[in-house]
Design goal:
This protein is elongated. It is an alpha+beta fold. It contains 14 helices and 20 strands. The N terminus is likely disordered. The strands form 3 sheets. Strands 1, 6, 7, 8, 9, 10, 11, 12, 13, 14, 15, 16, 17 and 18 form a 14-stranded antiparallel sheet that branches.
Length: about 550
């Protein structure tokens, strides 16, 4: 690929990314209580709303007649603790009501203002599409805890399904170490006749709301449905504003290898053992939630017969190494480019080790910024030297432009001859910067999604490096300091480093406008990323002042 073509491709990608970030919508402020209320209202309205909400028509939705479980009582909780997890189970819905990732001291289950199985790690079981969307009696009924021993907990309940007694067991099996546990669903025909499920299948889903507890007014704090369908990674995120799309209900047939839900930092993934699903389902109509489901075929059960479906469940942070350690096929769930993954790993590793010395992630970022500036110093110098050479050729460039203004082909040829004779590469000022782009993309990914910056304070007004450094809110508008400092530093950097190469007025105008564009790009970004970029600008300003002074003294 020619250098100009490569540059065009890279710059086009950069502009597209910048456009997306600038106009990335801000979700509405929604508290948990409002979410619960809205979900309850939607439950009564689904019949009328369902037609307009469906993105891909849902197939096979035979009606189900379920008599409420026989068990009655009150809620009881049970603690299961391993090296990695501290889980509190509730018999209401047979759910994980509270889950602490001990290594990161992060609560996976977002606290609810009102009890509802949906919104917890419910690992729900449903019998048709309507139940998947709206829930069923199993979600809120009281189950019996039939086993609690050796990090294994089993719940059971009994319903009457289309006139036939059916026992349902849900078993969680933990190991002492690791980022996963085993989940089993067992169906037992307790009747005297054959039992065929309404759609010859069950639908299982992990949750619709995953922690840690986040401020959903920040556009980076989103929920995402993920799955592997026919060996291809698929995801769906709810948007609003410029990129808005109505809440969807989607169903696609195919070989489902796994399903899951992703928050900004965490993942929960269900991986079927020795079988695969026949369809994946997604429902993102909740304001901040996203439910994914897997349709699993189940054969007719004879009286006394049973069916067990087992899953490996990954629950932890978005880390490809940890995902691969559980199952190689879920590695893509982290959705991180293979190109930047090694650099991203290096960035996070460096920050963690620097932080061991300073105990403050903000100061660790400062030291990391200095180190990266030193590493890229040769490339920066090469770029500056190339621009100075171009500046020295400005008179000749203007002369050729004036002489061959009506003959563009000849002008281009003469310009290239001049560059060759003077051993100047017109792209020399850009290429060193382009070589750094994979690093900057990796740094962006690391600072956006690394839990090490979550709730990490720095100094003064910067209380959380994973969020914008808002100091005040005026008429709904957040006032942030770092993006302003970054814009000032960008202006200073351009003033000191830009050389006159005979640019057109349009080009000079773009150089003036770009710092103003960057303030919009970085306004809602995490303060850790803005801090790094601002420091890089000020280091470049300081470096250029030293170089300029040295040049004058030696002139």
């Amino acid at each position: 690929m020619e250098k100009r073509t490569l540059l065009a491709v890279v710059l086009s990608a950069a502009i597209w990314i910048a456009w997306f970030i600038i106009f990335k919508p801000e979700p509405q402020v929604v508290d948990n209580k409002a979410v619960q209320k809205t979900q309850q209202e939607k439950t009564t309205q689904k019949t009328s709303d369902q037609g307009s909400a469906i993105n891909t028509p849902l197939a096979s939705n035979k009606p189900v007649s379920i008599t409420a479980p026989e068990t009655r009582g009150s809620e009881t909780t049970t603690l299961v603790e391993t090296e990695q997890y501290k889980a509190v189970f509730s018999n209401r819905g047979a759910v994980i009501k509270s889950m602490l990732l001990k290594e990161k001291d992060v609560q996976v289950v977002v606290p609810q203002n009102t009890f509802a199985a949906r919104g917890m790690l419910d690992f729900a079981l449903h019998f048709n599409d309507n139940e998947f969307m709206n829930g069923n009696v199993l979600d809120s009924s009281y189950w019996n805890m039939t086993e609690k021993a050796n990090n294994t907990i089993r719940f059971a309940t009994r319903i009457i399904l289309n006139g036939v007694p059916l026992e349902i067991q849900k078993t969680f099996i933990f190991t002492e170490k690791g980022d996963s546990f085993r989940l089993e669903y067992t169906l037992i025909n307790k009747g005297r006749s054959d039992l065929t499920l309404p759609n010859n299948s069950i639908i299982v889903s992990p949750t619709d709301l995953l922690g840690p507890s986040l401020d959903f007014t920040n556009s980076y704090n989103t929920m995402k449905g993920i799955c592997s369908l026919n060996e291809k990674y698929k995801n769906e995120t709810k948007g609003s504003g410029f990129f808005s799309k109505a809440g969807i209900i989607k169903k696609e047939e195919g070989n489902v290898n796994w399903i899951g839900v992703a928050s900004r930092y965490l993942l929960v993934i269900m991986i079927p053992e020795k079988f695969s699903g026949s369809s994946m389902m997604m429902d993102n109509r909740a304001e901040t939630g996203f439910r994914t489901g897997m349709l699993v075929p189940v054969d007719t059960m004879r009286p006394g017969g049973s069916v067990t479906k087992s899953y490996t469940v990954f629950l932890g942070e978005q880390n490809k190494d940890r995902l691969a350690a559980v199952d190689k096929k879920i590695e893509k769930a982290a959705d991180i480019s293979m190109l930047i993954e090694p650099i991203r790993y290096f960035v996070i590793w460096s920050l963690k080790n620097i932080n061991k010395l300073f105990g403050n992630m903000g100061w660790s970022l400062v030291i990391f910024s200095i180190l990266t500036k030193v590493v890229f110093m040769p490339l920066t110098k090469k770029s500056t030297d190339s621009m100075k050479k171009m500046q020295a050729l400005t008179p000749k460039i203007n002369e050729i432009k004036a002489k061959y203004k009506d003959k563009p082909d000849v002008m281009q040829k003469e310009m290239m001859n001049m560059y060759r004779e003077n051993k100047v590469n017109p792209m020399g000022g850009c290429l060193p910067i382009l070589l750094q782009m994979p690093f900057f993309f990796a740094l962006y990914s690391a600072l956006i999604n690394s839990m090490d910056l979550w709730h990490a304070p720095f100094i003064f007004w910067i209380k959380d490096l994973s969020m914008p450094d808002t100091v005040a809110t005026i008429a709904g508008f957040n006032v942030n300091i770092l993006p302003v400092l970054m814009t000032i530093s960008t202006f200073l950097q351009q003033k000191l480093t830009t050389v006159d190469t005979g640019q057109s007025q349009q080009q000079k105008m773009m150089m003036t406008i770009m710092p103003l564009v960057f303030i919009f790009i970085f306004w809602s970004m995490p303060s850790g990323l803005v801090l790094y970029w601002t420091l890089q600008n000020f280091f470049q300003v300081a470096n250029q002042l030293i170089v300029n002074r040295f040049s004058k003294e030696t002139a």
